[in-house]
Amino acid sequence: MKIKVHHTAIVLLILIAGGVIVGSILWDQARVESDWQPFVYAPPVYPDSTGSDLDGEFYLSKIQPIFNRRCIVCHGCLDSPCLLKLTCYEGLLRGARKGNPDGTHLFAEKPVRLSDQPSIEAWREQGFCSVVEQQGPPAERPAKSILFRMLVAGTEHNQPPFDLKSVQPVYQAVNKHICPCEQGVDDYLKQRPTAGMPFAMPALSPDENQLFSQWITAGSPGPTAAVMAETRKLAQPEVIARWEAFLNQEAALSPLVSRFIFEHAFLATLHFDESPGEYFRLVRSTTPPIQVTTDEDGKQVVDASPVHEIKTARPYDTPYPKGVDKFYYRLKKVTESRSQKSLFVWKLSDAKLKQLDELFFQVDPVPGKSLRSDYASHNPFEVFQAIPARSRAYFMVENSHLIVSGMIRGPVCVGNLATYAIKDNFWVFFVDPAHDPSVLKPELGLKSWNDFMDYGITGNVEYNDAYNRMLDQYKPTGYEIKDIWDGNQKNPNAWLTILRNETNATVLRGRQGGIPPTFWLIDYSGFERLYYSLVVNYEYYGSVEQKLATWEFMSRLRQEFEDNFLRLLPVDERQKYRDLWTRGIGQELLFRMPFPGEDIGKGLEVEGTDPVSGVLGKIQRRFTEAVSGPHDLLNPGRKPEVKLSDPIDDFAGWDAAVSTLTMRTQLKFTRFLPSNTFVRLTKGEESRVYSLVANRSYAFNNVVFDENGARQPELDTMSAYHGLVGDFPNLIIDLKIEDAAAFLTELNAVSSPEEWAAWKTKFGTLRNTAAFWPMLDWLTDWNFSNRQPDAGYFDLKYYMLLDSMH
């Protein structure tokens, strides 16, 4: 009874808070739109020389590599500590500022992407301070440089092994801690002598410190114009020309199609098979597309105007700043270092170009619908009516990895509160657009397109009722196995594995990690609603009421997609599984959601006593391993007959032994296991990499701010993966094969915080030890050698700290 009162109080508090602040929504929204005006961001102008005895390549060849491996492990994302982003020289010059625009605040703030202001002066007006000293006598610059002083403090206090207790309080209020800009670096370090950089990690080497001293004394120069021109040079300009021509063609549907693609890929990093090693972003520019021709001598002539990006707060905002009456879609080469958390790659090729042309331009526009790209509307169902719904739907399912990645791998690195609306581990399937009521009847019988994007409870119920009516009309017996899109038995985007593990959020193609506790079946209109609410409409800098509305809508969408999957089960089994998937106070809140009961289909005919396994078996047979991937030996349902105490002599023996612990509930150690653990397993001269992921269990996911109250630790499980999964490793293990049996045996025996701490100290690579950087460097090299083009630098902001609660 006490627990129930606690939960009810939380619900009432949320409702009261929402009522108090909801009146400011329209005013707050207007405030953001009036404060932010679109503008043209031209490339920064670099000098012809460094103005010192350092050459023009010094920064990119000497300094940025240190930032990459030692600094952007924390300072690589939009919400980096003190907003200091060190992935490129522009981020260094912008400097630092307190606060986090993604934090909780009553009023919306302004975006802080690196190109959201046209100059350093504009950033200074927003409170950013310089972290390097470029003026005054050279000998005095290091002492006046915040960056260098923080590195010196790290050198003084972070010589391994060093104590971590003094830094843990910072993580208890990560968005509230003071930055050196506010009180001056002298006072800051006097009060916090152990806050040097790299923060709570081993200090830089003497050689690295010497490079920084030399560079800062010289005035912290960046790359020269000649060096940047070479860096921005296109290796295969004809490839980029083909794509820019496609995006800016004269076809009647072209403006809408290009806008549709842009709004679904604006956060992605693009990589082309025909131009390996180069990365791009899709942007809107005032300058025309690249032109590649051949002269009389047969030589290639490239006419490429610099990309002058049109910056808007949101991707659907008008791309017409003052004085601009025409814009183009361009591919802007990415030259800054890639942070793994914000990196998701859309892999493109000439074959993909042909596929997109067939999908969008070998079809006729929908009769009577406007071909004009009207920026007065932000509703995708209204804006893109002229593009056949079938084309839009197939684009989304065929590129589902891209679409879902945009929801969970955006520029904000840590968003575990927002992702709490979904479960830690689930599989996703899609309704085949050829059989989807929202494709066959796009308007679903609703009176207004606004009904599709109504975040309110009433509006959501009306949408669900309309969808169910159309489903009953087109599929009176409910969904059948043929109604699930199978990727034409070759596209692995048809089956997704999604992980939400505190700071880590990952989407994988195919069936991976073992059979999860829940599943989604997504239809086109639901997929679009989900994407626009979480990505296109979402403002990380927005006010608390905006974020609460998005969170609540996300929670309802999750329930819709879980219920969609339940429609595949026999009617008399559906309630049992819904009650299993959402328990406690969560069930009391489900009165708002219609249930797929007897009036919505009869479900699939399955054999055996487990209807979910029966449905999954039918899906597997339909999809084949070409889509689902091979049998998962690390997370099998039927465990091998192996004893943990038996010696492990090879990698096959490790795979079998670790598989005895995966996807099992009622284990004691899983509640202590960090969200994400990287393991390097070595036998002789050969090393292999594994990821151990903790799948937390929650009784419900529809009461915001009550994540801990919903915990069911006895139902936690562990999944194992080949390779590196996740972006925020919480623990790194360096393990020799001869120690593998003891590693697993002792892990399985952990049942208390004290035992966990002892196990972690024995086997873990601790962040305050000399072994830390060499181990991370090895994993970084492995990542870039084995995961291209999807490799970036890992984020270690919460390394060893999220599990400190245990």
Automatic annotation (TrEMBL):
<dbReference type="InterPro" id="IPR010706">
    <property type="entry name" value="Fatty_acid_cis-trans_isomerase"/>
</dbReference>
<protein>
    <submittedName>
        <fullName>Fatty acid cis/trans isomerase (CTI)</fullName>
    </submittedName>
</protein>
<feature type="transmembrane region" description="Helical">
    <location>
        <begin position="7"/>
        <end position="27"/>
    </location>
</feature>
<dbReference type="Pfam" id="PF06934">
    <property type="entry name" value="CTI"/>
</dbReference>
<keyword id="KW-0812">Transmembrane</keyword>
<keyword id="KW-0472">Membrane</keyword>
<keyword id="KW-0413">Isomerase</keyword>
<keyword id="KW-1133">Transmembrane helix</keyword>
<dbReference type="GO" id="GO:0016853">
    <property type="term" value="F:isomerase activity"/>
</dbReference>
